[in-house]
Design a protein that fits this description.
The chain has helices spanning 16-30, 75-88, 103-113, 136-139, 141-147, 156-163, 189-196, 217-224, 227-230, 247-255, 271-280, 295-302, 331-343, 347-357, 363-375, and strands at residues 3-7, 34-42, 65-71, 92-97, 120-125, 150-153, 171-174, 203-208, 234-239, 262-265, 283-286, 306-310, 324-327. The chain is α/β, with parallel strands linked by helices. The strands form 2 sheets. A 7-stranded parallel beta sheet has the order 3-2-1-4-5-6-7, with helices on both faces. Strands 10-9-8-11-12-13 form a 6-stranded parallel beta sheet, sandwiched between helices. Helix 10 links the parallel strand 9 (234-239) and strand 10.
Length: 376
């Protein structure tokens, strides 16, 4: 039985990538790999983390071996972890990479682990270049990239970004972000609205996830102020913790007279409540100004929801015309699409399209891609 170690965020840390690593570990176990996840003893220093907490209140996942071992800012720890892996000699180490901050840590661990002559290291890349790049995003990634034996990217756009740093033409594969299918089942709209205490006479747009500048909530608020939408029984659900200053958004809502049409849920939503917001929504809107791919689309696919995304990064790759809209990053274009959706009753057709399209995003496809890379 081949042994795989996944290095990246996992319980007790919260967030989409932690959930991804847990789900990936389960999928690899289903393919008869021996799997453990080595997560952080310290993920971010508190002063670098903009949210309220890095930690989940949910119980630890059952059946997954999670080891808290990696200190992201302690170089001596990186060498120790690398030496442990070198001695343990797993066949493969998969580094879940999403920001340049981790490149020195990951690159050092990989170099140490590979000194046994057996272990091979692969990058599973969520983002190669962040949405809001800085100087370290030019300086740090080459150190990580040079230590890898190959890569899996979650979008074609990210695959292109890796090329900027890889001058050795290493193995690269694309596997689309699989479904986030761990949030619970599809349920009726009425049940979800009742659970959330929302008015069933209204229709709902959902903006879900951490609020950051690149996610374009300001564009959506401007679009939602369109007179045609204002005349409909619509409300916008903004569900997620603000990682940007909240006041400018509140000021914009006031200026556009949206206070009574927007429901703000400014907090991290536990996994067992996520399903209610998606089941309640008529359409999921991602008006991003920049993007690679997004886990939110894969949650929407799981719950078979129509989508609106903007024409940036990898988002357009996974929202064909059968499942929703791809618009320019302009409030007027977003408003036009939303008007078409509600006035022309597109919901049923889009949801039928989503039910077909979601079959592409299986975890089996991800494990097949990784296995192919391992065996290359």
């Amino acid at each position: 039985m081949k042994k795989v170690v996944i290095i990246g965020t996992a319980h007790p840390y919260r967030g989409g990538i932690a959930a991804f690593n847990d789900r990936l570990a389960r999928a690899l176990k289903d393919e008869n790999y021996e799997v453990s996840v080595w997560t952080f003893s310290l993920q971010y220093p508190a002063f670098l983390f903009p949210g309220k907490t890095q930690y989940s209140e949910a119980p630890a996942p059952e059946g997954i071996d999670v080891v808290r071992a990696v200190n992201s800012i302690h170089p001596l720890n990186w060498f120790r972890v690398g030496r442990k892996l070198r001695k343990m000699a797993p066949d493969y180490v998969v580094f879940a990479y999403w920001m340049s901050f981790f490149a020195p840590c990951y690159g050092t661990i990989a170099r140490e682990a590979k000194r046994n002559g057996k272990t091979r290291c692969f990058g599973l890349i969520h983002n190669m270049i962040p949405h809001e790049p800085s100087l370290i995003d030019k300086l740090f990634p080459p150190y990580f990239v040079k230590a890898m034996d190959g890569f899996v990217a979650l979008s074609e756009a990210v695959l292109g970004d890796i090329e900027q740093f890889d001058h050795a033409n290493k193995l690269k594969r694309f596997a689309p972000h699989p479904l986030y299918d761990h949030y619970g089942p599809r349920e009726s709209r009425e049940t979800a609205l009742q659970n959330l205490g929302l008015d069933s006479s209204q229709r709902y747009l959902l903006f879900f996830g951490l609020v950051r500048a690149y996610k374009g909530l300001d564009l959506l608020l401007q679009a939602f102020a369109d007179a045609r939408l204002a005349a409909m029984p619509l409300k916008l659900l903004v569900v997620g913790e603000f990682y940007d200053e909240k006041q400018p958004y509140l000021d914009l809502m006031q200026r556009l007279q949206l206070e009574n049409r927007v429901v703000l849920v400014d907090r991290y939503v536990p996994d067992d409540v996520v399903k209610d917001y998606f089941n309640a929504a008529d359409i999921v809107v991602q008006p991003y100004k920049s993007a690679t791919q997004s886990g939110v689309t894969q949650v929407a696919y799981h719950f078979e929801k129509a989508m609106l995304v903007t024409d940036v990064g990898g988002l357009k790759e996974i929202v064909p015309p059968e499942v929703g809209y791809v618009t320019p990053t302009e409030p007027s274009a977003i408003a036009d699409a939303l008007c078409d959706f509600f006035l022309n009753h597109r919901q049923a057709d889009f949801e039928a399209g989503v039910a077909v399209e979601k079959q592409k995003y299986s975890w089996a496809r991800m494990t097949e891609t990784l296995s192919g890379l391992f065996n290359s």
